[in-house]
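Tokens help. Consider this.
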Amino acid sequence: MRSSDGTSRKKRTAVVLTRTSDIVEGEPFVVVAITKTFPDPPPDDHVLLPYAPTGRCVTRLKERTAAVCSWFDEILETDVEEYAGVVPPTLMLEIVRRSPLDIGK
């Protein structure tokens, strides 16, 4: 995924925004970055995600994190190293709502 300033690419945890039914093999799909570095309270373009120190929660995240709705990228399935947890539907809708993209709106 591209860095927040857009100058480089690196491995990063992300939330898939593209509907599963809209993902086509070999075609890019949209993700938003997940970050552990953000102020308290979080900015308006951040959505806090559930976590547990043991990772035993629906997202499987172990630290306080947020989806950054304004930090998006297109990736290919070959860019994905692993699928982990799931974002609860109410939070997913909030991420989509706060995103500047026209995905599922």
Observations:
- The domain at 14-98 is CATH 2.30.30.110 (SH3 type barrels.).
- Residues 51 and 57 are 6 Å apart (CA to CA).
